[in-house]
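Record 1 of the preview.
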Amino acid sequence: MKAAWFNQFGPASEVLQIGEIDTPVPAPGEVLIRMHTSGVNPSDTKKRLASFPDLLDHGAVIPNSDGAGIIEAVGAGVPHSRIGERVWVYQAQYGRLHGTAAEYVSIDSNRAVTLPDNTSFVEGACMGIPAMTAHRCVFADGPVEGQWLLITGGAGRVGHYAIQWAKLSGATVIATASNEEARKHCFEAGADYVVNHRSEGMVDEVMEVTGGVKVDRVIDVEFGANLPKVLQLIRIGGVIATYSSTVVTEPCLPFKEMMFMDLTLRLVIVYAMPETAKREAIEDITTALENKWLQHRIAETYPLDQIAEANQKIEDGGFYGCVVVEIG
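->
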């Protein structure tokens, strides 16, 4: 089969290779999927840049955890009725070497989720890290109906779905954006209000929107950089759910201030989510897709031969939506 892989860390254009390797055979409990698409996320590019230094100890890595395709074969213990099923895949390149940037992936059948006919394979490649992370951030600490949610970076991959999950569940959403294009995307996703997180008056803007009431929860894309403002905006007993902190990679916490506010700090990454949380996310994603409740934003698609360019797109930033590799 045709696949992309890397066997050393470094820039995408230098270390990503494309060629022919053996097609995997599904082990017991696994399904063999003919991949149509592979989603590229920041965690995938960071792995290639050595965020896990021991990643290559056991061989070359086929990158990317998300994707979508059609089941072509099943291992022992998996119903043959799954053959021919359209599926989206998550967590393919975690705790194992072979991700979705290949013509075929063999993976635990629980990681291959039915993809409704009304959802494209390109859209299916966005359901893993972006949609599941957003779901966990919004719902990990109970219902949000009637609450004020502040979602920073609302036009980003996760923020886009977080706005939608929150609105579907009856929350009032204040999103942040740094320019007019991002502001437009936030409103299109369903945000009730949008403020500029780069503005010196951001805190006052939010408090004006809420009528002086502090927000119940914050879903944050830049935890370390945003924390000082967040602490001015969140209520006592509130929840901060964060999935990234790239500007300030090792934040210093004002422990006493946060403790006396009785805050809950939730750090979210799909790979480590409890299986129960994954199942809950999958159930809600399936229902939302079947009913066309979610909108998807695709920034760009690339052929497999241009996977290095897709990786560079993620690293360069400055765009809105998912980056997807089409396998062929």
